[in-house]
Design brief:
The structure is a homodimer. Chain A has about 100 residues and is α+β, with helices and mostly antiparallel strands. Helices cover about 50% and strands about 15% of the residues of chain A.
Chain lengths: ~100, ~100
């Protein structure tokens, strides 16, 4: 399961990964930093469509996926994103407040 | 020629528009705020591929296109982007410095 290192994370890849409403929703759901079971991140999104979203976010360096037994746990790579692109995650969260 | 108003610009659309190396390159080329003739923004990119990039950036609210006679002028909607998503354009420009 490929996870780019912090230094390998590219802004253009992060933009591409975040350029989808479900993937923005995932980032917001993970914003607390807590690791969540993949089934509880965005429970309203059909599971069949999520596999591609996890991969896109993981390969871009936005999330970290950790298998444990038959379960998959997900967390936002907030430290890495904040270090590389200060303010980016805050923008995503601020937009949610503006929209609600 | 559709240009969303400032209030209509959506972060997810901006992310999707910026999720391509050429489109990030275009934003950097326009960062000064100066309006450029479309042929001089990214002169190393084949013109045939640019039409789709202008449209993606325009429809997301990232650039403004102004036809004048048979020419097309382009500028970054920096004021609108800074007002809606403070720090986003700076992130794009900072990454350029880090990469060079």
């Amino acid at each position: 399961m490929l996870h780019p290192s912090r230094d390998q994370i590219q802004l253009v890849d992060v933009f591409a990964a975040l350029g989808h409403p479900v993937r923005v929703q995932i980032v917001r759901a993970l914003a607390s930093g807590e690791e969540l079971f993949c089934g509880e991140v965005v429970p309203d999104v059909p599971k069949s469509t999520l596999t591609g979203h996890w991969r896109a976010l993981r390969e871009a360096g936005v999330i970290y996926q950790r298998p444990e037994g038959r379960k998959l746990f997900i967390r936002l790579r907030r430290d890495d994103l904040d270090a590389r692109f200060p303010g980016l995650v805050e923008l995503v969260l601020a937009e949610e407040q503006a929209a609600s």
